[in-house]
TrEMBL record:
Species of the source: Inmirania thermothiophila
HAMAP family: QueC
Role, per record: Catalyzes the ATP-dependent conversion of 7-carboxy-7-deazaguanine (CDG) to 7-cyano-7-deazaguanine (preQ(0)).
Full protein name: 7-cyano-7-deazaguanine synthase
Gene name of this polypeptide: queC
Residues reported to bind ATP: L9, S10, G11, G12, L13, D14, S15, A16, T17, T18, L19
Length: 223
């Protein structure tokens, strides 16, 4: 029987690759997506497609409302998504998002009896979010083992971030090797209801650059 793992699955390129890596490592993957009030909720339909295509044994969608606290262009329609590079941490940063998402994954993992959690954060070709750095992943793993009954009773949780130190082109090549169909994914911060990308936001720029550097055709649908 395969070892269970929880995999955070947004519906984007990185999380799809992470799911494929977890599957290739022999885990029975329980995919977790979160409807947190993101304006690009077409990614959730993409997550369902990816979970099915990559053989997740379960796909759960949990709804929370990070829009209630605001502070991000991804949850507040009054804040525009930048279409040009900006200095510092961009307004597309969602306060505490990865902390909240990992906490939900941790809770489900404890219920499932799983010790392994996969997250597709990346600290190389990324937007500069503080909750995508190695120090954050390491700190959350320590928290997971302090804050749970399972951790206190001796089952050690492991937070896997297999993309952490990879460039986007390397991520794409690995995903292609593992059979990921990137046409199923949605990365754009302001994708329309059909999942078509704007081609101008930070996520679109990083994605297009990755495919170009990988020397592979970009299957993104643009509006």
């Amino acid at each position: 029987m395969s070892t269970p793992a929880v995999v955070l699955l947004s519906g984007g390129l990185d999380s799809a690759t992470t799911l494929a890596i977890a599957r290739a490592r022999g885990f029975a993957c329980h995919a977790l997506s979160v409807r947190y009030g993101q304006r690009h909720d077409a990614e959730l339909a993409a997550a369902a497609r990816i979970a099915a295509a990559l053989g997740a044994v379960a796909h759960k969608v949990v709804a929370i409302d990070l829009g209630a606290i605001g502070g991000s262009a991804l949850t507040d329609p009054a804040i525009a998504v930048p279409t040009a590079p900006t200095e510092g941490i961009p307004v597309t940063y969602v306060p505490a998002r990865n902390t909240v998402l990992l906490a939900l994954a941790l809770g489900w993992a404890e219920v499932l009896g799983a010790a392994d959690i996969f997250v597709g954060v990346n600290a190389v070709d990324y937007s500069g979010y503080p909750d995508c750095r190695p120090a954050f992943v390491e700190a959350f793993e320590r928290l997971a083992n302090l804050a749970t009954r399972a951790g206190v009773e001796g089952r050690r949780f492991r937070i896997h971030a297999p993309l952490l130190r990879l460039r986007k082109a390397e991520i794409i090549r690995e995903g292609v090797r593992l059979g990921v169909d990137y046409a199923l994914t949605v990365s754009c911060y302001q994708a329309d209801a059909e999942g078509r990308a704007c081609g101008r936001c930070d996520a679109c720029r990083l994605r297009a650059q990755g495919f170009a550097e990988a020397g592979l055709p970009d299957p993104t649908r643009y509006r």
